[in-house]
């Protein structure tokens, strides 16, 4: 049985969204229905872009050291992939950080570097790398 996560989000232009997810972030296209939806391989998870008239609304919630946008979705990446995407964003003319990279939970075993970016439709994505990723699902009971 697969443990692939599936998320469907609204985008105002599938073409612009493909450019963002595939060209900037390095994801790959999958199944599609012309002009209606496009699957994206989001690091082994199925992200489905649905053509829509509007994006989701955003608001800010306090999380250690920052006000994060809700809703958002994200991905935990290895340091090398995280740094590669950071470099692409920092040298890209069109796409910029919503929230620049910062350390959260500094000097804790849960320390993570994270940043937020919006896709062309305003969907917020958090991209992070963790100092000790093996502790993510450690039993805290």
Which helices and strands occur, and which strands form pairs?
Layout: E1 6-11, H1 14-24, E2 28-33, E3 37-42, E4 45-51, E5 59-63, E6 66-70, E7 73-76, H2 79-90, E8 97-104, E9 112-118, E10 124-130
Distance between the termini: 27 Å
Q: The CATH topology is what?
A: 2,3-Dihydroxybiphenyl 1,2-Dioxygenase, domain 1
Class per helix and strand makeup: alpha+beta
Number of distinct beta strands = 10
Radius of gyration: 16 Å
Q: Describe the biggest sheet? A: 4 strands, mixed
Write out the strand line-up for the largest beta sheet, numbering strands in chain order.
1-4-3-2
How much helix, percentage-wise, in residues?
10-25%
* Percentage of residues in DSSP E strands: 35-45%
* Mean pLDDT, all residues: 88
> What count of domains describes the coordinates?
1
CATH architecture: Roll
Overview of the molecule:
With 141 residues, this protein is of the alpha+beta class. It has one domain (6-135): 2,3-Dihydroxybiphenyl 1,2-Dioxygenase, domain 1 (Roll), CATH 3.10.180. It is built from two helices and ten strands, in the order βαββββββαβββ. It has helices spanning 14-24, 79-90, and strands spanning 6-11, 28-33, 37-42, 45-51, 59-63, 66-70, 73-76, 97-104, 112-118, 124-130. A hairpin with a 2-residue loop joins strand 5 and strand 6 (66-70). The two termini are 27 Å apart. The relative contact order is 0.19.
